[in-house]
Amino acid sequence: MKADLIIKGDAIFDCVGEEPFAGFVAIAGNRIVQVGRGGVPAGFDGVNTIDAGGRLVMPGFHDSHTHMVTAGMALSLESLAAGRSEEEVVRIAAEAERKDPKKDGWFFRAGWYEIFWENPTQPTKASLDRAFPERPVFLMCASGHSGWANSAAIKACGITRDTPDPKLGEIVRDENGDPTGLFRDHAMNPFMQRALTFDRAEEIAIIKAYMTDANSKGLTSVTDVMAYFHGDIGDIPVYSQIDRDGGFTMRVHAVPSLFNDLDEVLEWKKKYSSDKLTVTHVKEFLDGVTSSHTALMLRGYADEPGNKGAQTCDIEKIRAAVPEAHKRGISVRLHAIGDRAVRTALDFYEDAYSKYGDTGVRHSVEHAEIVSPDDIKRFGALKATPSVQPEHIAITERFEENPYPALLGQELADTAFPFKSLLGETGVLAFGTDNPVVSNNPMLGIYRAKTRVFNNHKPDGGFAPDEKLSLPAALKMYTWGSAYNCFREHELGTLRAGNFADIVVLDRNLFTAADDEILEAAADLTLFDGKVVYEKKS
């Protein structure tokens, strides 16, 4: 049998079995031609060989929920994530603006999140105005559900105290009714449409910055959730140009908005379809996020009795669109964080199946942070994939700072992120990060899914410990599970003959490592399509 490359080692984890084994992976061109146990057969003598030794060899990771363009912007532009106060974020933004070669027009950056601040108060335009008296500035929160503008930007968008809140959004106001500078959900749209503009060359550079970073973390596939409140972030024809030019170093599964013309989406699925670029789903938001009381809850928020979540999305429009997509065989992803939103997503999928039967779709629920026990059982019946982000478990550094108990009440907070229960009903989870909300380093999600502790190792034994996943399960859901959700489990996500040679060699064997060592683990080598796209410098 012909091979171009052999990877041999003592810890080959194919994401099929439960344990790694001593053996080899043989690659010819861009495909795996043989996976075997024991020594390399004599027929492969003389083939270029990588000896992984005791390091773990496994399929490349697949981030099932990332925002490729905004994450790439966070890499190619200065991120605001390091700021630990309103003033510090403004300082970082001002330093970045001084280096900005454009020097005029809108200035955009992202990554701040007030829940990480030492004093988590809502920012206002006053601090931005002192640093940016003339240039319009818009800074998007890492959550993606709020943005912060200065007076010049507010004026450029024509927003005054008399401007009504948009449907499904909020202009945060002071005691006099004037905009404070904070805009939530659909209220961000005028700013996003003006600030988030770049030409084709800029977009290509942003995407390549993302891919270079992702490859260094062992990622070889992503699901790019393009859909946003004002439309899609990213341009599929630009992605196709990268593909045609041979520039992709990972497989991109694009997910535009459910509110696009669905017949046009079908055309995209046909036109932009290769082994490196596909359009797999459409997506929309059913709710917001817990921290801003916009996640839709069955019971009221503990800190605001009677408030079951502010509606930020056109739910009736989604109700009508889901069956139409289902009828056309287009799979749907619905963002649903609160238990009422999760129930609504499952109701819409159930309605679509009842109307049109099984059209070969694989719908998913994105996030599924709080799920009623009754609805956990429905996931399997509706063949809905839970697309989850384990690193969101530890949204704060210290367990004691976790805002969920105060927001939801301790009893409900203790049920959050029911990974093992959902896996038991469906047989699959699709693991992702929501990058740039959190890092796209897979080791963080694997550690969090396995331990369910925060970075201060609390609580003892992990919160809701019955929902911990085993290490093999966590690795499989970050590979095979994400591939399954994109209809690609037959060619991605496992090490097996015929699959694409998308492989990562980690710097250690996670199966023999202590839990805390998982956080320290990293990719030594990443292969995509049979070629090395990242190698750690010694």
Helix and strand arrangement:
Blueprint: E1 5-12, E2 21-28, E3 31-37, E4 48-51, E5 56-59, E6 61-66, H1 68-76, H2 86-99, E7 107-112, H3 125-131, E8 137-141, E9 146-149, H4 151-156, E10 169-173, E11 179-185, H5 189-195, H6 200-216, E12 219-225, E13 227-228, E14 231-232, H7 236-244, E15 251-255, H8 262-271, E16 277-279, E17 281-285, H9 315-327, E18 331-336, H10 339-356, E19 364-367, H11 373-381, E20 385-388, H12 404-408, H13 410-413, H14 419-426, E21 430-431, H15 442-451, H16 471-485, E22 503-506, H17 515-520, E23 523-528, E24 531-535
Parallel strand pairs: 1-4, 1-5, 6-12, 7-8, 12-15, 15-16, 17-18, 18-19, 19-20, 20-21
Antiparallel strand pairs: 1-2, 2-3, 5-22, 8-9, 9-11, 10-11, 13-14, 22-23, 23-24
